[in-house]
Amino acid sequence: PTSRDINCLNLQWFSAIYFSTPQIAYRTANCSSNSGAAFTRLQTLHLQQRFASLLCADGKQVVSYGSCQFPTLGFVVERYKCVERFIAEAYWKLVMEHVRDGKKVEFSWDRVRLFDQNVVQILFDDCMEARGAKIESVSRKPKTNYRPQPLDTVLLEKLAVRKLKISAKQAMDVAEKLYNKGYISYPRTETNKFPANMNLSSLVGQLTTYPQWGDFAAEVLEHGPNPRNGSKSDEAHPPIHPLKLSSGSLQGNEWLVYELVVRHFLACVSWDAKGQETRIKARIGGETFNATGLHVTDLGYLRVYIYDKWSDKTVPSYIEGEELTDFRLQIKDGQTQPPDLLNEGPCASHREDQGSFSRQYVGVRDDGRFIPGFLGLALVDGYDAMGLCLSIIRKLWMRCNGSIWSLPALGTLPQTKLSRPLERCSLVGGVLGKSSNITDRLW
Q1: Residue 212 CA: distances (Å) to CA of 150, 258, 267, 389
Q2: What pLDDT, on the 0 to 100 scale, is given for residue 366?
Q3: Are 158 and 256 contained in the same domain?
Q4: How many CB atoms lie within 10 A of CB 64?
Q5: Of 72, 285, 287, which Cα lies nearest the Cα of 168?
Q6: Which residue numbers delimit the Topo IA-type catalytic domain (predicted)?
Q7: pTM for the complete prediction?
Q8: Which of 364, 361, 375 is closest to 342 using CA atoms?
Q9: Total count of domains within the chain
C-alpha cells in the first residue's frame, strides 16, 4: 500500500460487529453526559448563590454531579448513617476450654451468643450440674482453598488497596506506566477469563528464570497452566497478565504492582490449596460446643501468592464417646459492634472517577476510611427528601440501551412530573444549611 493508503487508516472504536452495540454505547454516554451537565449546572447555580461561604473562599466551587460519582457517594453516606444510628447491645455466651497434651482447645457454643444474661446463667448452671463433657463426634473432611480468578481492573484496584496499601488511583496510574513500558498487558479490562487459544505456557515459561517465583513457575509449566476462569469478558482485552520479566529497574509502587500482577497470574493458572479439617463436637448437659482444626496438606497456589494466608490450626486427638472432667466452662460478655466505614476497596466496584473524594463530598480518615463531608451529606439527604419519581429516568436509560426507541416530548408529559421536582429543588439547599453546622464534627 502507498503512504496515502496508510494515512487513511481509521482506528476501530468498538470491537463489535453489530450496528446496535456502538449505538447503545453512544446513547449511554450521551445520557450520562447530558444528565451530569444539567444537574451540575442546577446544583452549582442554586447553591453558590445561597451558600457561597460554605463552598469555598471565592464562592466559585463547581458542585458537580455524575452518574457514577453520586451512587458511590450514596454508599458512603448510607454506611456513615448506619454507623451513627448503631446502638451497641450487650450479649453473653458460654465458652468451654480444655487442655490436652499441653495445648488449650477452645470450644465455641452452638448458640453463639444470647442477649439475656439470666437465660445464659440458667444454661450455665445446668451445664455445671452435668459435671462432665462428652465427645459426641470427631469428623474429618477435605478442605479446599480455591486459587484466584484472572485479574481484571476492579480486582486489581481492590487488591492494591487491601494488600499493597496504596490507593486505587495510584495503582491504575502505575499499571498504565507498566503497560506503556511493556511489562504487563492492558490494565483496563472487565475480562476475568483467558481465551481458549491464548498461549499461557509461553507466558509462564518466561517467568521460570526469576529467582523469587521461578521454581513455582517451572512446576506450573510441568503440570500445564490451568486457569480458574471467571465468567466475564469484554471481548476486547484479556485479563491483566505479565508480558516480560523485570530487568531490576522497577522500584517502589511500580515493583509492588508488577509483583502483584505476576504472582496473581501464576496463582490463577496453578492449582488449589488442599487441607483436612477436623471438627470435634462436645456436649455438656443440653448444650453443644464445637472445636475445629486444620491440617494443610498442599499449599498449592499459596506458595507463590503471598497475599493470602492459610495455615495449620492443630487440635489434639480426641476419641468419640470419651468423657472429659477437667474442662473449664465460663460465661463471657461483650457488645455488638457497628459496621466499619467504607474504604476504597468496596467502593472500587461502584466507582469510575475520583470526583466524590475531592470536593468536600467525602473525606478520608487516617485509617483510610471514608467519612462524608457536610456537602456530601446535604446532597444525598436533599435528593432523598425530594422523593422524585424515577419513571422518567427509567425511560431515559431504556432509550439508551435500545429497549425503547422514542421518548415523549417534554411538552407531552404531565405538568406535575415537571413542576414538582423543580419546586422541590430548594430542599437540597435547605439540607445544606442544616448540615453546615456539623462540619467540625465530621472533619
Answers
A1: 21, 13, 14, 58
A2: 76
A3: yes
A4: 20
A5: 72
A6: 18-443
A7: 0.73
A8: 364
A9: 3
Do 226 and 255 have their domain in common? Answer: yes
pLDDT at residue number 26: 72
Q: Does the active-site annotation cover 80?
A: no
Rounded to an integer, what distance in angstroms lies between the CA atom of residue 233 and that of residue 195? 9
340 in any annotated domain:
no
What is the rounded CA–CA span in Å between residue 30 and residue 209?
49
C-alpha cell read off for 331: 460465661
**What does residue 192 show for φ and ψ, rounded to 5 degrees?**
-130, 30
**Could you give the 3-state DSSP secondary structure of residue 66?**
coil
Report how far apart, in Å, the C-alpha atoms of 346 and of each of 79, 134, 154, 351 are: 12, 44, 10, 9
8-state DSSP, 410: G
Q: Which three cell numbers stand for residue 181?
A: 513500558
- Same domain membership, residue 138 and residue 283: yes
Of 22, 35, 36, give the one whose Cα is nearest residue 402: 22
Compute the CA torsion angle 235, 168, 265, 257 (nearest 10 deg). Answer: 130
Structure confidence at residue 396 (pLDDT): 54
Which of the residues 18, 80, 146, 186 is marked catalytic?
A: 186
For 341, the 3-state DSSP assignment is coil
* Judgement on whether residues 228 and 286 belong to the same structural domain of the protein: no
Sign for the CA dihedral angle at 229, 231, 235, 236 comes to negative
Residue 407 is predicted with a pLDDT of 44
The C-alpha cell that represents 284 in the structure block: 455438656
Name every residue whose Cβ is closer than 8 Å to that of residue 87 and which is 6 or more positions away in sequence.
none
Helix axes 374-386, 69-85, angle to 10 degrees: 100
List the chain residues with pLDDT less than 70.
1-22, 24-25, 52-60, 345-359, 387-443
12 occurs within a structural domain: no
Angle at 271 between CA 267 and CA 276, to 5 degrees: 120
Smallest Cα–Cα separation from 330: which of 7, 73, 96?
Answer: 96
Give the pLDDT of residue 322: 93
- SS3 string, 330-393, reads EEEEEECCCCCCCCHHHHHHHCCCCHHHCCCCEEECCCCCEEECHHHHHHHHHHHHHCCCCHHH
Residue 162 and residue 265 in one domain: yes
C-alpha cell of residue 201: 505456557
Q: Is 334 helix (H, G, I), strand (E, B) or coil?
A: strand
pLDDT of residue 308: 92
Task: Domain of residue 423: give its range.
Answer: 22-85+369-434
